[in-house]
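Just wondering, does anyone understand these tokens?
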Amino acid sequence: MSNKTQSQGDQRLKIDYLATSSLSPMPGAPREHPKSQIRLLEKSIHAFNFNVPVLIDRHNRLIAGHARVQAAKNLGLSEIPVIRIEDLSEAQVKGLLLADNQIASLAKSNDKAEAQLLLELSQIELTIDLEATGFYLAEIELKIAGIDDPTLG
């Protein structure tokens, strides 16, 4: 195992808390977030809290986390965790914005693993709305119903 640590230049990443009102979207951000996605994020934040810091630049512009910030504002959260990225040039910030969105979109779901997790969660008494997982109830039912489908994987 390596002893290397991920750092920003000579300083380690630091989580701060900033007022949601002090954050602004990055001009030209390439993603649009439908209301349905924001509502699911609201359910997720309500169930699991706001646990993933957003990335911001030195001007408090969002690099990553635009939809989560909107959901937080809708829920009335006054502040959220942020990681300020200060050592990148303006071009690098824009590159990171694109990379964060594009690389994440390349992931593929393992339908069988999702179905198994959803089945496990549906069989225990939860104190959360199962839609907080990001799946609508109809999707959950279909995934669970097809759990033995040999084409899933």
In short: Helices lie at 35-48, 66-74, 90-105, 111-122, 137-145.
